[in-house]
DNA sequence: CACACTTACGATATTCGTAAGGATT
DNA sequence: AATCCTTACGAATATCGTAAGTGTG
């Protein structure tokens, strides 16, 4: 009662070759199979697509008018499913990532390179934004994947830890704090401090910890870019605290770092996914690569 | 290995209702059938279209992107086959007829009315042209059907007789020939003659017959329109010969007719079809109606 | 008789519905 | 307990290939 894709393929092959025998080779079917498929199709549409003369087939006017429609139908069909298949076989696709600047610059270059080698035709789009925006983008489906600190109370987001980072004190060379193997958080209050963006997750961590040890930073100024913090410290304006991953990015002559202790803070970093928006195949592949990376 | 139309239907129904149970009602299938069809489709395309959470289904990004494509695919599919079905069920279509002017005006009005009553949505297009042009139009597929005299030596045309006509002598009232019950061809030569277009099949018939009886018409003039012939005869300019079908069309006061004998000619009229171009369903229906008409 | 399409028939695959089995609210 | 999805299984259907049949050049 219902025409099938296969019947459409048969019709097109027969119409183009005007012969069942030749069509059977194109479609990789036996000649009788072609004959029957064509007959079934004609029963389905309620009339003859071909006029059977003695030894050859001729398209009826209806068949002739239907042929281009059938070709378009089949092409659209194939194209649609090839597209879909490409996406699932990760030969095509797009992944949008929202990552903390620290991770965007720190973890990303290596991961991106590996991913691009594995799936060269998948497009990667990276947004380096702050933690709250990351949560929002993942929540709204504007990003497939977030790379950030745990999202806290958001029950529509999942967090999967990937690596742990720690905070380090960053000082200009020759600074007294560098004489120690490690620096206690409480000691930071004694020096001018170069802060990073108050909205950033690390800054909020830092403020919270200082509060918990009962001290207050002597903040000289805040910078939005980590590199700026590095240069200001190198210039001797003050000291700072950075996640060690961030420090690695700006490590240059003139500054040095010491681990921060009392308390020793582990900063958990990982992947954020939405519960409401399932990950695409490409995004899942990237997640798996990130998991396997460490 | 190959997705099916039914699987596409299921996918769309599930995507729109976000529930297998509800989709099963739309598609008129059992719930397990929906579940399996969806799973098969996902196997076919190589990835998940839905993310199965505890009790509800959520489209994956791939499924979400595919949904509008699937809808378009299915709509195109349905539309194409509905069109085709309409053509075969004669609910739509077009028939182009090439007919001799005699038949176009004589046979046609009744047949057209019957056909249009039976198949109101089929478009009829009529070309009243001469016999040679009819043959050419049918041969080239520009007309589905010819209504004419037998096409002679054309082996790519078929002729099916429908009715026979005879020739009549047409005279103004009071003309001496009207005194007889029938007129012999040989008697025509004695009076001024109003001819019809030399290229028309009836004229060629007439000339041939006159030659065979060894007489020559005294041709006053030729007219292209049969109505013109009628008026000229009525005006007393001369007599004429017309197929009786044609005479009926122009029968008015002032002219009368008598059958032509010696020889008694039967003019065969019928349908011309192409051997190379099979008739459309609509054209076949018209042919059948014409056959049944007499 | 060779060629091209059709029919016949048995084997395989797909699809469906009923019934039973989880899992979640 | 109720709801929803999944799995299991037997039946109906569809599709295919081999083989035999039909008709034309």
Jot down its keywords.
homodimer; 294 residues; Arc Repressor Mutant, subunit A; D-Maltodextrin-Binding Protein, domain 2; 3 domains; eight-stranded mixed sheet; two-stranded antiparallel ribbon; 11 helices; DNA-binding; transcription regulation (chains A, B); transcription (chains A, B); LysR_subst-bd (chains A, B); DNA-binding (chains A, B)
Give structural notes:
- Chain A is α/β, with parallel strands linked by helices and 294 residues long.
- Chain A folds into 3 domains: 5-88, Winged helix-like DNA-binding domain superfamily/Winged helix DNA-binding domain (Arc Repressor Mutant, subunit A), CATH 1.10.10; 93-162 and 268-293, D-Maltodextrin-Binding Protein, domain 2, CATH 3.40.190.10; 166-265, 3-Layer(aba) Sandwich (D-Maltodextrin-Binding Protein, domain 2), CATH 3.40.190.10.
- Helix content of chain A is 44%, strand content 25%.
- Chain A has 11 helices and 12 strands.
- Chain A has helices at 5-17, 20-26, 31-45, 61-88, 101-106, 108-118, 131-139, 201-212, 226-234, 244-250, 281-293, and strands at 50-52, 57-59, 93-99, 122-128, 145-148, 157-172, 183-184, 192-196, 218-223, 240-243, 255-261, 266-274.
- In chain A, strands 3, 4, 5, 6, 7, 10, 11 and 12 form an 8-stranded mixed beta sheet that branches.
- In chain A, helix 1 crosses helix 2 (20-26), helix 1 (5-17) packs across helix 3 and helix 2 packs across helix 3.
- The mean pLDDT of chain A is 91.
